[in-house]
Amino acid sequence: MDKPKVVLGVSGGIAAYKACELLRRLTESGHDVRVVPTASALHFVGAATWSALSTNPVSTEVWDDVHEVPHVRIGQHADLVVVAPATADMLAKAAHGLADDLLTNTLLTARCPVVFAPAMHTEMWEHPATQENVATLRRRGALVIEPAVGRLTGVDTGKGRLPDPGEIFEVCRRVLARGVTEPDLVGRHVVVSAGGTREPLDPVRFLGNRSSGKQGYALARTAAARGARVTLIAANSTLPAPAGVDVVPVGTAVQLREAVLRAAPEADAVVMAAAVADFRPAAYAAGKIKKKDGQEPEPISLVRNPDILAEISGDRARAGQVIVGFAAETDDVLANGRAKLKRKGCDLLVVNEVGERKTFGSEENEAVVLGADGSETAVAHGPKEALADTVWDLVAERLR
Ligand code: CTP
User: Among 125, 195, 271, 306, which one is least packed by beta carbons within 10 Å?
Assistant: First the structure.
């Protein structure tokens, strides 16, 4: 089979050096990558680097190898075009269809999915001109990844940082795997909870669970790769933030509830993938609980935590909102799942069978997604991203 053909467009920003890492990830995972830098990009990273890493020729202009008609062919033959970093100037040119170099010509001839990973100073990103250009590109079907918040060039910090190259690579992988040209969750805001809550007993101890957060992160990553604005409420997870995703860190069930209730009124969908502790210690000891010679420990008494899923399902923050829950069952999986779906009042319930061999923290999952309308969608054993994409298919169907 031919290697998938990826065009890596690089425009002139300091983050161009990070595109080398993206290029490596793409080539090492079996993609044929043609790098098309702008002339300004070459001020930051030279053509020799791009050519050596991609093992392909590199040009910025339409006037090299004219007999091969590169200004048309490169775009026409691509399976994916990713522009990283995309400067404010590049977004403006793309939005207006300008074509004064090889990259802008390539963008006009590409019929495959196009991903932009913008990077610039916060002021440039927030400028109405840039925001309108981004909106135009999104309306036309391009996937524009939200920049990350963090350190920018010099001493400045703010929104405008290029997301981690490994996470941009994940977006590219997802877009290529789905094989559709237009992201279908554009204009949607989704809230995903992930990880496991920790309920503190004293300053050094907590009651927790073994949730790794991987399924929730896979849901956030796949939704972003399908164009959604994503708020990821992450309980005690150390996984890297997916590209374009707004991560809200929380610790306890009560904090998770507050964060979900704050985000829900603007959300088209809420997916509760977090393992929320059903109980928390009735009392928190301000000082470390010490053992006492010759004495048995005091029993720990617990109180119920609020059921967030039942609460947001019963009292919808927004009409037409789709709410998804997760359930882990060991026996009578489907019957228990159906009963839980009803009890919680959500629209979809992803039922996982858990058992001794089915460990937490694995890269794979299998499940049945039950719908309040009686539907049943089985998802075969596979990557957590595949289950996540099925969940978004079902959510998108209900939002339509
Ligand atoms: N959930 C929640 N608030 C809680 C507990 C759970 O929102 N206090 C959500 C979880 O995020 C998940 C679903 O509800 O989406 C799981 O429901 P739960 O009743 O906890 O089911 P199980 O974890 O399967 O456990 P059990 O049936 O044993 O209670």
Answer: 306
Instruction: Write down the pLDDT at residue 344.
Output: 97
- pTM confidence score: 0.93
Phi and psi angles of residue 272, each rounded to the nearest 5 degrees, phi first: -95, 85
Question: 59 with 70: CB under 8 angstroms?
Answer: yes
The residue type of 241 is A
Ligand 1 within 6 A of CB of 325: yes
pLDDT value for 356: 64
Task: Give me 362's structure tokens.
Answer: 């694995």
Whether residue 394 sits in one domain with residue 254: yes
Nearest residue (by CA) to ligand 1, atom 14, is 309
Q: Is residue 251 included in any domain, yes or no?
A: yes
Atom of ligand 1 nearest to the CA of 309: 7
Catalytic residue among 56, 105, 209, 336: 209
Q: Are 74 and 34 in contact (CB under 8 A)?
A: yes
150/203 same-domain check: no
Question: Is there a catalytic annotation at residue 56?
Answer: no
Query: Do 134 and 210 have their domain in common?
Result: no
pLDDT class of 63 with cuts at 50, 70, 90: confident
Mean pLDDT, residues 328-334: 90
Contact partners, residue 135, CB within 8 Å, separation at least 6: none
In the reported structure, the alpha carbon of residue 326 is separated from the centroid of ligand 1 by a whole-number distance in angstroms of 7
What confidence score (pLDDT) does residue 153 get? Answer: 83
| Residue 302 and residue 261 in one domain | yes
Could you tell me the residue range of the domain that residue 325 belongs to? 189-281+295-399
CATH number at residue 265: 3.40.50.10300
Please tell me the distance between residue 255's alpha carbon and the centre of ligand 1 in angstroms.
16
**What is the CA(17)–ligand 1 centre distance, in A?**
44
How far, in Å, CA of 191 to CA of 270, rounded? 5
- The response to whether residue 276 sits with its C-beta less than 6 Å from ligand 1 reads yes
Are 239 and 349 in the same domain?
yes
Atom nearest to 344 CA in ligand 1: 14
Report the separation in Å between the CA atom of 275 and the middle of ligand 1, taken as the mean of its atom positions: 7
Domain total in the chain: 2
101 Cβ inside 6 Å of ligand 1: no
Strands (E) located in 72-198 = 80-86, 114-118, 143-144, 148-151, 157-161, 189-195
